[in-house]
Specification:
single chain; 600 residues; alpha+beta; Glutamine Phosphoribosylpyrophosphate, subunit 1, domain 1; Rossmann fold; six-stranded antiparallel sheet; 27 helices; 42% helix; 17% strand; globular; amino-acid biosynthesis; ASN_synthetase/amidase; asparagine biosynthesis; EC 6.3.5.4; ATP binding
């Protein structure tokens, strides 16, 4: 887990060092800078495998030079295959395996490796650069390409100087809580999409991007539930086991949820030593899962650490939030994620997490909502619109966001998309063209819930969940590994009958039944609270002054395409306790901090 940087812009070495220093938290163990022809490579190392200096980067092999961020979990298997082909190795790192693997297979190495990664390899013989990002977008990859000038990095901060703000990206952010790939906050700066590789021929200044992996339409397996459960369990065991490879201390995040509990249980079972587990709690019982997590920890016999998150902790973390989330990011669960990693770093450098389980096994609350309100979509659209505008919903106490969504959308695909987009609620003009990059979900499955899950994987997972985890962990130089993001698990889950995953409101059915082998069902079968903070109440009380100062007229009037009048109304309604608009208020608050940090 590291930070990578590369450019052909002739910066002085001092400027390169400044750029790397601005994201030094990604790799505090070693900073490497190397010039090869017209390219300057930079690397920030967080040492996990083969701690010896021989594995520092940039790393070269014959005519190739590499910078790499991430982990190749099956590197030992790939290394064995390359040894059988006659290759010799000088290190015990996965970096060298990736480099030599590319030497032998070229872009075919992407089909060989299982991991989280973003890397660039330059070939001095061809004057070409090959870059790639992992299948699920766990590791970030930003690049600037304009008139033959290239600059790429693990984070956008080093690329922002002298760039203009992307007004369209601001509108997308206001429409969601994030800026999805390939967009970024800056003009001419892009994200390489997951499962894609990029090739640049510097001789002719040509850049091409192609896809090597994506979700696809699959045939649902004709398999018994017990056999499916056994196969999935074995797959998860292997996904956990290969993620326990480390030359530094390793632990596991443990909340009161199914996913992290299952990952931690399997880790405790296959590990040769007692594992360390970590959780975050809150004073407000509506948000707190720490007591449940402590029960789990006793059952699996882990060394457990609980940290309580309070308003003062949030105030202290807000500067850190804008430092490491260097694009506007509106998911408030980034705050407890930062605190969790801050505590975890005191004990271990690597931690397992349960991220990705909700997407593949139908765990989010909005999946329930889709099922509950889907039948509304059978009512003719004009009649639905009449009901929505008649005031009948308020009269019968049914005026919820989800029901309004079902009444006001023309198609079931619109119904699914509205989970992630608020259709320009805060905008003067609606902007929906960005969804064109995520239309594949419509054809990958004929099953309604699987369509929603696929969009979750392609849109939310990469741009929200993975961003949150990467930045929060890197802020404290912690590497987080997520077994549910093993592409084999993602692919296998999509072949299972839907009722194995979701049945009569029982979310993650098959995961729950696997977890019963480790933890009694009456212990883990409790309401899901999610990894959220009571930010809505805090902004009315302890943090009120901070929000009033940040969300002033000067800032609001500078935000492109923002409906200022509408925002002020919902701000007043929230602060008076009439409505709950914490999501909208928080995202504008984060944006204000971003403007101030980057002086826009």
């Amino acid at each position: 887990m590291c930070g990578i940087y590369l450019t052909n812009i002739p910066y002085e070495e001092g400027i390169i060092k400044e750029k790397l220093e601005s994201i030094s938290f990604r790799g505090p163990d070693y900073t490497g800078i190397q010039k090869v022809n017209d390219l300057t490579f930079g690397h920030l190392r967080l040492s996990i495998l083969d701690l010896d200096p021989r594995s520092h980067q940039p790393m070269s092999y014959e005519n190739l030079t590499l910078v790499f961020n991430g982990e190749i979990y099956n590197y030992q298997t790939v290394k064995k295959e390359l040894k059988n082909l006659g290759y010799l190795f000088k290190t015990e790192s996965d970096t060298e395996v990736l480099l030599i693997g590319y030497k032998h297979w070229g872009k075919g190495v992407l089909d060989k490796i299982n991991g989280m990664f973003a890397f660039s390899i330059y070939d001095t013989l061809t004057n070409k650069l090959f870059s790639a990002r992992d299948r699920l977008g766990v590791k970030p990859f930003y690049y600037y390409w304009h008139k033959g000038q290239l600059e790429l990095c693990s984070q956008i901060r080093p690329l922002l100087k002298d760039k203009k703000i992307n007004d369209e990206a601001i509108s997308i952010y206001l429409d969601t809580d994030f800026i999805p790939s390939p967009y970024t906050i800056a003009e001419n700066v892009f994200k390489l999409p997951p499962g894609n590789y990029m090739e640049i021929d510097f001789t002719i200044n040509k850049l091409t991007i192609d896809e090597y992996w994506n979700l696809k339409k699959v045939k649902i397996q004709d398999i018994s539930y017990e056999d499916a459960k056994k196969e999935l369990h074995n797959l998860l065991k292997d996904a956990v086991k290969i993620r326990l490879q480390s030359d530094v201390p390793i632990g596991s995040f443990l909340s009161g949820g199914i996913d992290s509990s299952l990952v931690s249980s399997i880790a405790a079972n296959v590990s040769t030593t007692k594992i360390n587990t970590f959780s975050i709690g809150f004073d407000d019982p509506k948000f707190d899962e720490s007591k449940i997590a402590e029960q789990f920890a006793k059952i699996i016999d882990s060394n457990h650490t609980t940290t309580i998150c309070r308003p003062n902790d949030i105030m202290e973390l807000i500067p850190k939030l804008t430092e490491v989330y260097d694009e506007p990011f509106g998911d408030s669960s980034a705050l407890p994620s930062l605190l969790l990693n801050k505590v975890t770093k005191q004990y271990v450098t690597v931690a397992l997490s349960g991220d990705g389980g909700d997407e593949s096994f139908i765990g989010y609350g909005h999946f329930d909502s889709l099922v509950q309100n889907r039948k509304i979509m059978d009512i003719p659209y004009k009649l639905r619109k009449f009901i929505a505008n008649s005031g009948m919903l308020k009269l019968f106490g049914l005026n919820t966001h989800r029901i309004n969504n079902a009444l006001n959308t023309k198609t079931r695909n619109d119904f699914i998309e509205n989970i992630f987009s608020r259709k320009g609620f805060l905008l003067k003009e609606k902007r929906q063209n960005w969804m064109k990059y995520y239309q594949g979900y419509k054809t990958w499955s004929d099953v309604f819930l699987q369509k929603a899950a696929d969009l979750n994987i392609k849109l939310w997972l990469e741009n929200d969940s993975n961003v949150k985890v990467d930045r929060a962990s890197m802020a404290y130089s912690v590497e987080v590994r997520s077994p549910f993001l093993d592409y084999r698990v993602i692919e296998y889950a999509r072949t299972l009958p839907m009722h194995y995953k979701y049945e009569k409101g029982r979310q993650k059915k098959i995961l729950r039944d696997i977890l019963k082998e480790y933890i009694p069902e009456d212990v883990f079968n409790q309401p899901k609270r999610g990894f959220t903070v009571p930010i809505g109440n805090w902004m009315r009380k302890e943090l009120r002054e901070e929000f009033d100062l940040a969300l002033n007229d000067d800032f609001l009037n500078r935000v492109p395409n923002l409906n200022v009048k509408k925002f002020k109304c919902l701000y007043d309604d929230h602060m008076s306790g009439k409505e709950d608009h914490r999501v909208y208020i928080w995202k504008l608050f984060v944006l204000s901090k971003w403007y101030k940090e980057f002086q826009f």
